[in-house]
Write a structure and sequence with these properties.
Layout: H1 2-11, H2 15-21, E1 23-26, E2 29-32, H3 33-50, H4 56-71, H5 85-112, H6 128-155, H7 167-187, H8 191-209, H9 213-239, H10 245-248
Antiparallel strand pairs: 1-2
Helix pairs in contact: 3-4, 3-9, 4-5, 5-7, 6-7, 7-8, 8-9
Membrane topology: Multi-pass membrane protein
Pfam families: NMN_transporter
Main location: membrane
Length: 252
C-alpha cells in the first residue's frame, strides 16, 4: 500500500516527496540520499564540536532539519520504512538545545577574547551532582518518553506495521540520551562524549532493525569518532591549569 502511494506521488511530480524518496544504488542495496546528506553534515558538525568551534552548532542544526523529514518520510507517503517518531522528535529538541549551545559557546568565546578560529570553550568534567543529574534524568526520562510514545501509538496506530515491545524503549532511550548529550556538550562537559556512546550502543541495532542502514552505519563510525573526540577533550581539560571560570560565568 505504502509502495503504491509513494509511486503515485512520485508520478505526480511532488518534489518534496521525490527528494525524501531519492535513493542511491550501492551494489544490490539502495541507500536514501537525503539521509546520507544529513548524516554527512552531522559528521561535519561532530568534527567542529571536537575542535570546540562555534560553527558546530549552526552546521548541526542544518543536519537536524534534514533528518527530521527523513525519519518521518513514511508519513508523507514518500518512504516505505518505519517512521521513527523518537528520532524525528529529537531533531526538534536538537535544534532548541543547539540554539542554546550556539549562544553559550559564542558568549564564552567573547568573554575569553578569542576569535572564531580558536576553541570557544575549555572543557571540564561534570561535578558529582551533575553526573547524578545526568543519570537520573536519562533513566526517568526514558520511562516517561516511552509511555508517551506508546500512548501516541495507541491513539493513532499505524495499520502497516506493528512495533515490537522493545521498539519504543530503544527509541525513548536514544531520544532522551541524545538531548542530554547535546546539553552536556553545550555546557562543555567531557561526559557528553560518553553519553553519545550510550546512545550509539542502542542506535546501531535499532537502525539496522528498522532499515535505516545509513543511520546505523553512522552510529557505528560515530562510536569510533566519539572515542577520539573524548580523548581530545580530556587532553584539553588536562592542559588547562584551572577550570574555565570565565565560561562558567555564563550560567544560563
Amino acid at each position: 500500500m505504502i509502495t503504491t502511494l509513494a509511486a503515485a506521488d512520485a508520478a505526480t511530480g511532488n518534489i518534496f516527496q521525490r527528494l525524501i524518496d531519492w535513493t542511491i544504488p550501492v551494489g544490490s542495496y539502495s541507500v536514501h540520499g537525503l539521509e546520507v546528506i544529513g548524516i554527512l553534515i552531522g559528521f561535519a558538525s561532530a568534527y567542529l564540536g571536537m575542535k570546540r568551534w562555534v560553527w558546530a552548532w549552526p552546521v548541526g542544526i542544518s543536519a537536524n532539519i534534514i533528518l527530521f523529514f527523513v525519519y518521518l518520510g513514511a508519513l508523507f507517503a514518500a518512504d516505505e520504512r518505519i517512521p521513527l517518531f523518537g528520532q524525528a522528535g529529537r531533531q526538534v529538541f536538537f535544534i532548541v538545545t543547539s540554539i542554546y549551545g550556539w549562544w553559550r559557546w559564542n558568549e564564552s568565546r567573547k568573554r575569553r577574547g578569542v576569535d572564531n578560529a580558536a576553541p570557544a570553550i575549555t572543557p571540564r568534567w561534570a561535578t558529582i551532582k551533575e553526573r547524578y543529574a545526568i543519570v537520573a534524568l536519562w533513566l526517568l526520562g526514558t520511562v516517561l518518553v516511552h509511555q508517551i510514545f506508546v500512548a501516541l501509538w495507541n491513539a493513532a496506530p499505524n495499520p502497516y506495521w506493528q512495533p515490537q515491545w522493545w521498539f519504543y524503549w530503544c527509541d525513548a532511550w536514544i531520544f532522551v540520551g541524545s538531548i542530554i548529550a547535546t546539553f552536556a556538550m553545550a555546557r562543555g562537559w567531557n561526559e557528553f562524549w560518553l553519553a553519545w556512546i550510550g546512545v550509539d550502543l542502542v542506535g546501531v541495532p535499532l537502525g539496522f532493525a528498522t532499515d535505516y542502514v545509513p543511520t546505523a552505519v553512522m552510529y557505528s563510525f560515530y562510536g569510533i569518532f566519539v572515542l577520539y573526540g573524548f580523548s581530545q577533550w580530556v587532553k584539553a581539560s588536562r592542559a588547562s591549569s584551572s577550570p574555565d571560570r570565565v565560561d562558567d560565568r555564563v550560567t544560563v
